[in-house]
Predict the 3D structure of the following.
Amino acid sequence: MTTALITGSTAGIGAAFARRLAARGHNLVLVARDTARLAEQATELHDRHGIEAEVLTADLSTEAGIAAVERRLGDRTHPVDLLVNNAGFGNKGRYLEVSMADELAMLKVHIEAVLRLTSAATASMRSRGRGGVVNVASVAAFVPRGTYGASKAWVVQFTQGAARDLAGSGVRLMALCPGFVRTEFHQRAGMGTDNIPNWMWLDADKLVAAALDDLARGKTVSIPDPRYKALMGVVKLTPRGLLGGLSSRTGRKYGPR
């Protein structure tokens, strides 16, 4: 039986990955900051699907948290076959309205943790000739959206580059770029969502199902919804200066994820 490690597993997209993978018979390593929620999630998934669910409490905005997950990914006696780098957060406010400490914490979670955990996982996977990594980014990666969008753009570029470098190794890497998803993401950041039209909201479970299908097809970037695929097609044709103006008026507090 294969094992998947999911960061930010207790809510939103991470929880949807956990449910879907458990239903498919994967054992899980569940990673988040809240030990009580992790234990509750692990018990529920074990009881419902008969899989083994290991709990690892870690805050990926800290060195100790990243190092703990690195060690688990490097365990060759209990290998991880699929890594889902889902942990992330948003900061409310525009550039210079957010404290430098909060900006750096975001970069640690979105960039340093993704780099280090992907590297730890793929080194082990390559030696076995199989494995996969899903790095959760955002459609915000494709428009100018301050630190959040920039960090997600890094995730997309890094994942595509690493996928090319590991081509033929049996290890697949994919950047997942959702739009607005009904999760705790915006509430935790204190972000308002009243101005977001209903048609722009995605269901986390459907999104994850589509993402796993894209991973199986060997895609390196997944935008798992026709509406957002069409929007990103328009974005590609829109001048960058105009995109910047639209993004600024929309405001970072409405960033997709």
